[in-house]
Amino acid sequence: MTTAKGDRHTIGWVGTGRMGSVLAARLLEHGCDLTVYNRTRAKAEPLVKLGARIVDRPADLADRDIVITSIGGSKDFADVMTGPQGLLTNGNRVPSLVIDASTVSMDASEEIRAKAATLGTELLAAPVSGNPKVARAGKLSLAVSGPKAAYDRALPYLQMLGKNVTYVGEGEAARLVKICHNLVLGVATQILAETTVLAERGGIRRADYLEFINGSVMGSTFSRYKTPAFVNLDFTPTFTGHLLRKDFELGLELGRQLDVPLPVAALVHQLVVNLIGNGLGDEDFAALLKLEARGANLELQPDQRAIADGLEAVEAPGGTS
Predict the structure, then answer these.
(1) pTM given for the model
(2) Ordered domains of the chain (ranges, CATH)
(3) 10: CB partners within 8 A, 6+ apart
C-alpha cells in the first residue's frame, strides 16, 4: 500500500548504519522526499545517488513532517532527540511525528515520548525484526505502538519498509514485543548451534543437518537465512554479539520488573557474555556456533557450498527491490 504522491509527507531519516541505510534506500526507491542525518556523514552519502539530501544536525530535520530514527540504542536515541542540536531542540519547529525503528529501553522511550508530547510531536515505537539482508529483500517485520491515529497516518511508509506491520497497542508495547523477540532470537540460535555441533560430531555434515531442519516443521525464515553462515562459517556481522547482549540485558531487567522468571534467557545471556569474552563479540551473533564447537573441541571447516538463504527480494514499484 502506498499513498498518492500528492498526499505524501516530507520524511527525515536519522541513522544510516547497516540497517538504516537499507531502510532509507527503500523509501527513496518508493519515491519519498527524504532528507537524512548520520553522525558520520560519509555513511549517508551513498543515499544521495538515490535522491536523498543530507543535513549536518538532527535539528536540521525539524521541518520534516515525519522523522524516522534507526540508531544503536537508548543513549543514541536520547542524544539525537534531546541532546545538543537534537531534533526536538529547534525552538521554532518540530516534526509532527517521530517513528523510532531502533531497539531501546522502555524507560528511555517513555522519557522521550513525554518530552515530544509537550512540543506537539507524537512518537511511534516501531522496532524491526530482521537483518539488513532481510530488509533489502523487503521481508522485515515491524511491531508498532503509540497513538492509533498516528499509526494510521504512518502505515503507508511503514509498509514500504517491510512485509509485515503489526500494531500492538499504545505507549511502549512495541518495545516489549521486540525485546521478547530478541530473547527468542538468541535462544533459537544457541540451540541451533548446539544441535548442529552435536550432529557434526556424530558424522553429519552441517549442510545436510540444516537442510533437514529447514524442510521440517522446525524450519523458519530465520533458520534458513542463518544457514549459509553456519555452513560456510561466514560471520560477517549483521547483528553483533554486543548488540545481542544489550537486548538480553534489557529483557532480563524487564523480567525482574514484571516478576517473570526467565531461566533459559538468563543462561543464554551468560553464553553471549562468554562469546564476547572469547573475542567474538564483533562478529555476527551466529558465531555462537564457533563457541559451541570450541566447547566440544571440534574444529569447524567451511563447507563452501552454495547455500540459498530464502531471501528472494520482494520488488518495489517500478521493478526495484
Answers:
(1) 0.86
(2) 6-171 (3.40.50.720), 176-295 (1.10.1040.10)
(3) 33, 35, 63, 64, 65, 66
